Amino acid sequence: MDSIENYRELVKQVIRRHAQHNPTFGDVRIETIFDEQQDHYELIETGWNDFDRIEGAVIHIDIINDKIWIQHDGTEYGVARELEELGVPRHDIVLGFHSPHKRQFTDYAVG
């Protein structure tokens, strides 16, 4: 299996793991979105909590130029750490939610 296929599977594994946790409030549904052709992967919440609309990404990851770009991470533990624990090297993980200037000060790829 080439690294991109491996990365796709690992990203989906992380998202599926988080999708098993149901919200403790409201009538909220968890949805996974896996677009392998465009390499976009998301975990979103959608629904209602009383009169408040709940809708948005919990996790958003793209695979761009052979690297895993974490565009949004709404988890407590951290998707980057989870991917590292699954064997993805830091030089293949980009914290896309940080500005390009800030990325140089992390231990992860800059782009």
The major β-sheet equals: 5 strands, mixed
Task: Count helical runs.
Answer: 3
- SSE pattern, N- to C-terminal: HEEEEHEH
- Estimate what percentage of residues fall within beta strands: 35-45%
- Can you tell me the overall shape? globular
Strand order of the largest sheet: 1-2-3-4-5
Compute the separation of the termini in Å: 24 Å
What value does the average pLDDT take?
95
Account of the protein in words:
The chain is an alpha+beta fold and 111 residues long. It has helices spanning 3-19, 79-85, 100-103, and strands at residues 27-35, 40-49, 52-64, 67-73, 93-95. It has a five-stranded mixed beta sheet, with helices on one face. The radius of gyration is 15 Å and the shape is globular.
Fill in the keyword field for this structure.
5 strands, 111 residues, alpha+beta, five-stranded mixed sheet, 3 helices
Summarize the structure.
The protein has three helices and five strands, in the order H-E-E-E-E-H-E-H. The protein is an alpha+beta fold and 111 residues long.
